[in-house]
Amino acid sequence: MCGIVGYVGTQQASPILVEGLTRLEHRGYDSAGLAVLGSTGVKVAKRAGRVRDLADGLPKRFAGKVGIGHTRWATHGPANDVNAHPHTDAKGLVAIVHNGIIDNAAALRQRLADEGADLVSDTDSEVLAHLVGRSGADTLEGKVSDALSAVEGTYGLAVLHADFPDRLVVARNGSPLLVGVGDREMYVASDLAAIVRHTTTVAHLDDGEIATLTATGFTTYRLDLSRTARDATTLDIDPAAYEAGDHESFMHKEMLEQPAAAVRVLRGRLDERFGTAHLGGLDMDARETRAIRRVKILGCGSAYYVGQMGASLVEELARIPADAEAASEFRYRNPIIEPDTLYVAVSQSGETIDTLLAVQEIRRKGGRVIGLVNVVGSAIARECDGGIYLHAGPEVAVASTKALTNMFLGFALLALQLGRVRDLSIADGRRLIAGLQRLPEQIEEVLAQEEALAALAGRLAEAESLFFVGRVRGFPVAREGAQKFKEISYRHAEAYQTSELKHGPLALISPDVPTVAIVPEDELTDRNVGALHEIAARRGPLVVVTHEGVDLGDVEAERVVVPRNERELDPILMTIPLQLLAYHAALRLGHDIDKPRNLAKSVTVE
Ligand code: F6R
């Protein structure tokens, strides 16, 4: 949430910063701003709205070879020009951009006001500019260290100061920040996406670290300004992975990338000979694995729903009791942490603060946590005792698609490995492996139905309100389908267990309220079809995601047919058409697909 980019070097900073902000915009898009340090001191341009509004309105004279930029997702105070970052101190010598939350901002504001400071915004971040400006230290590093010693909370911070025109000072605590190394130029960013066109040689800062960037290099420190040793490494990343290319949106590109992403997460991890999976990153031997009595999965939003699919996989394949819980709720109920429970944190970004705090709570109480994480080296990945990287590649669209598919596959691999040290037979293990190997092609087959799904989505988009229903394995699919639909189409979409409809929500079914029903061919098909009759009898329009040949009796419904695989793997094949339905409904309604209103990629605030 919120994005930071900074530059110091031999070129004009503002075009580089504007380009960086454009690439960071998915992280927050209600306001944006820049500060540069030129011959006449610090200049700031900021405004509510998108980065393109900022770029269009930049003053003609905005020269400077040192600069910082920010794209905001409002937490303290509405999205307006004043609350946009950068913030400056009273003398206009200091400019800062900040991600995160300053918990003691109210007390600091009061203290600064008592000392005569005039704070102009509603933000917590502005206090940082004033604290840096008021510090008596004689270096910029010292001023930043002074300021940070007064604050409680999380920050990714970049600071420039007119009295120190050759440098940026940056700091990290709980909000990601990386330094990029160029040729006689240095960058800072909250996400590699912002600078990947310029450099892939980067150093990730640790929590509690400060860095000085000048055109010729960077130096890192602890908060007390004792030096730390940090080298930059060159990442093997194709900058094109961060481009939408010919697609009209990143979400479209990322949906179509799912077959290739699925191949990547499975590669080298399937062992056909023993009918199992090899997950080296788990760092658990067979004895430790056998000792697991329960699996508890924690994630937020769509990651939580895929966690529910994962829990079913673990119970069905490994016969270990498993459940998923919203990480955002977990630590507030003083959870009992059991030594023989395997905790699994699942996150695309690896930054979601609720999931990170849940991991920290478990580890503090001595529990073992593994991560299913997409972003390598992210905070959650680093905090866990081991894990499975998802190899989905960079995901830019706010609505997660390919990362979620790979989460499901990560759970299938985990369940297979857990199952094979327990009661899952080698034959069943091989059956699952064969199913997993067929999946990428079958995902491709579902994606090939895009045109038909687009037509269907156009009709669904007309409804103000929809139900998504499923049972057992199908229920998390319905939850994820409803989530995607409401997230980008802004239609009210409610997920329900099909079996629960008659206990209340059936009252809402009418010709104006369509239902999308998940009806795989499995042990519950007949019961599901029974519920479809009840919906049809109330003249509720129906879309049924099902398998070829499933007998729906005389129920009138639009069918979406997905290929058959092993039953345990049905949920992921049934999720893919729901992505396309949501996508095309949103497109039909003319919404900004990659940047849905009020949301942002990576929720780094509680
Ligand atoms: C929905 C979506 C969100 C995320 C959630 C967790 O499409 O993307 O619900 O799934 O915010 O994010 P991560 O996976 O980064 O922890």
Describe what is shown at a glance:
With 606 residues, the chain is an alpha/beta fold. Helices cover 34% and strands 23% of the residues.
Question: How many strands in all?
Answer: 27
Overall morphology: globular
In which order are the strands of the major sheet placed? 3-2-4-1-10-9-11-15
Decide which structural class fits the backbone.
Answer: alpha/beta
Low-confidence stretches: none
User: In CATH, what is the class of the largest domain?
Assistant: Alpha Beta
Fourth-tier CATH superfamily name of the largest domain: Aminohydrolase, N-terminal nucleophile (Ntn) domain
Average pLDDT taken over every residue? 95
Folded structure, characterized:
By secondary structure, this protein is an alpha/beta fold. The protein folds into three domains: 3-241, Aminohydrolase, N-terminal nucleophile (Ntn) domain (Glutamine Phosphoribosylpyrophosphate, subunit 1, domain 1, 4-Layer Sandwich); 244-447, Rossmann fold (3-Layer(aba) Sandwich); 449-589, Rossmann fold (3-Layer(aba) Sandwich). The chain has 18 helices and 27 strands. The strands form five sheets. The chain has an eight-stranded antiparallel beta sheet. It has a seven-stranded antiparallel beta sheet with strand order 5-6-7-8-12-13-14, covered by helices on one side. Strands 19-18-20-21-22 form a five-stranded parallel beta sheet, sandwiched between helices. Helix 4 crosses helix 5 (140-150), helix 9 packs parallel to helix 13 and helix 13 (402-420) runs antiparallel to helix 14. The longest helix is centred in the last third of the chain and has 22 residues, at 426-447. The radius of gyration is 25 Å and the shape is globular. Fructose -6-phosphate binds at residues 300-303, 347-349, 352, 355, 399-400, 483, 487, 602-603.
